[in-house]
Write a sequence for this structure.
């Protein structure tokens, strides 16, 4: 009886651990930086081929990115075209805190730490403002 209960408990924990694996669909939506006055910074994940970063009122489509969901926190590396057509490579960490909040730390021109750090990078909290299903504009005609 004890062996059966032990096997069931281990099976339950294994299934629960597997089900907690985050995926790109958990990031789909428009995310806005929280707590920064006059910050117009957003991260919009539309699908696996389209991610848009808005910073200082300037929208940039990520030209290349890699997300490693097997790491905790998640490693999210991307590049964009910066000023004077130079490529800016950013390494970052993401933690999906819940359905509406993520923690994001960016490392520009410095090595990423394996975990969130108070001594390196820039740390942001982002709140989901809408899902991508609601980003389309509805046009009503008479």
């Amino acid at each position: 009886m004890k062996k059966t209960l032990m096997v069931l408990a281990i099976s339950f924990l294994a299934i629960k651990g597997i089900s907690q694996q985050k995926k790109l669909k958990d990031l789909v939506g428009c995310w806005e930086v929280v707590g920064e006055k006059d910050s117009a910074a957003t991260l919009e994940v539309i699908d696996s081929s389209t991610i848009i970063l808005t910073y200082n009122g300037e929208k940039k489509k990520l030209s290349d990115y890699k997300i490693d969901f097997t790491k905790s926190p998640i490693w999210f590396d991307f590049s964009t075209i910066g000023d004077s057509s130079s490529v800016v490579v950013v390494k970052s960490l993401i933690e999906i805190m819940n359905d509406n909040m993520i923690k994001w730390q960016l490392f520009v021109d410095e090595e990423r730490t394996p975990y969130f750090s108070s001594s390196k990078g820039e740390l942001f909290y982002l709140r989901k403002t809408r899902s991508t299903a609601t980003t389309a504009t509805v046009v009503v005609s008479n």
Summary: Confidence is low (pLDDT under 50) at residues 5-9, 11-19, 134-142.
